[in-house]
Amino acid sequence: MRIIDLRSDTVTLPTQEMREAMACAEVGDDVHGEDPTINKLEQMSSELFGKEAALFLPSGTMGNQIAIMTHTNKGDEIIIEEQSHIFLFEVGAAAALSGVQAKTIKGHNGILDPDDIERSIRPEDIHEPRTSLICIENTHNRAGGTVVPLDTMKAIKEIGEKYNIPIHIDGARIFNAATALGVDVKVIANYADTVMFCLSKGLCAPVGSMLVGTKDWIEKARRNRKMLGGGMRQAGILAAAGLVALEKMTNRLGEDHENARLLAEGLNNIPLLKIDMETVQTNMVYIDYSETGLTEKQIISEFERHGIKVDPEYPLIRMVTHYGISKEDIQYTIQAAKGIVMGG
Ligand code: TLP
Q1: Whose CA is closest to atom 20 on ligand 1?
Q2: Which one of 89, 176, 322 would you pick to mutate in the ligand 1 pocket, going by the greatest count of ligand atoms within 8 A of its CB?
Q3: Tell me: the pLDDT tens digits for 282-297?
């Protein structure tokens, strides 16, 4: 049976072109800055994002955490959306590794209101922590893959400048955001000091994320990467796939967005399944199945019986479209869901 794996775009497999590039990659010791393929990927990333420098990392989590560590001091506070990946899904690392506390704010569909951010900034007071970073997630995973509008980014940047607080974007899926907005990633990155983005999600590379920022900041981040054990050696083998990801895989994300829309519309027409269509903006669909009366275990195993894997995000399930998912898979999934919910 064909397996339709909708759990995440992290399940994407490297393309044949990536495998060939990996096999032939020119490599060297990256801790000494001598891996030509990593150097090329860092160069290309900084140019694409309009920043001075870039750093190759094993994962998005490490990228976000190094960003926090590099921007802050112990005892500081970071402003962050309450359903953000950094807050929910990074194992409490900001507290454990950087010694910062989080000031969480609820966004509308994950999008922070700039006024709420401004109100949350701490005054200079001996009793209070310093607000030293504003984190924005774009696209926002837990809110449905939602996109931060450019005027919101602009307003947040102005607040950052007014209070001299840097802005970091968790841009694990920033190419999806850029596709939805119809702009280059550079346009979004212009509203932030630093950006983390992933090569290993919708872009299909097997491993790898990047940080971009100023040259000095990236040098500090490089030291922090070493401290955390993320200094890799002949990792050009991995960066080679990342280069193919940036050169070949960013322009096709619109297809995933169309598939997500089709999927959402099809599922939303099924009685007892509910989708907040406003949040279906990129490659994710969150489905509220509470009215079906099925437990989480049941709904997962029902889909599995049809060869479909979904991600439980209680009280919802998440389906993510990606390179491995075709229009036929979407139609099949909608039919299967009808059978599961309505019997048959
Ligand atoms: N997200 C994964 C899971 O961890 C939930 C997924 O399947 O969506 N930022 C955002 C917005 C993310 O969605 C993720 C991964 C990360 C950071 C972390 O990236 P990795 O997995 O490379 O550490």
Answers
A1: 60
A2: 89
A3: 999 999 999 999 999 9
Q: Which residue range is the domain that position 232 belongs to?
A: 14-249
Ligand 1 cavity residues, CB under 6 Å = 8, 10, 59-61, 64, 85, 89, 137, 141, 170, 172, 198, 200, 209
Would you state the pLDDT for residue 344? 58
Kindly report the protein residue whose alpha carbon is nearest to atom 19 of ligand 1: 60
Give the span between the Cα atoms of 229 and 225, in whole angstroms.
Answer: 6
- The answer to whether residues 153 and 33 belong to one domain is yes
Mutating to test ligand 1, I would choose from 5, 10, 195 the residue with most ligand atoms within 8 A of its C-beta, which is 10
Domain boundary, last residue among 249, 277, 299:
249
pLDDT tens digits for range 164-192: 999 999 999 999 999 999 999 999 999 99
Query: Which CATH number covers residue 212?
Result: 3.40.640.10
What is the tally of structural domains in the chain? 2
Same domain membership, residue 282 and residue 225: no
Distances (CA, A) of 217 to 69, 131, 208, 264, 274: 11, 18, 20, 41, 44
Q: Are 6 and 260 contacting, i.e. CB atoms less than 8 angstroms apart? A: no
- 188 forms beta bridges with none
Same domain, 134 and 212: yes
**Does one domain contain both 158 and 263?**
no
pLDDT tens profile 222-277: 999 999 999 999 999 999 999 999 999 999 999 999 999 999 999 999 999 999 99
* Separation between Cα atoms, residue 233 and residue 223, nearest integer Å: 15
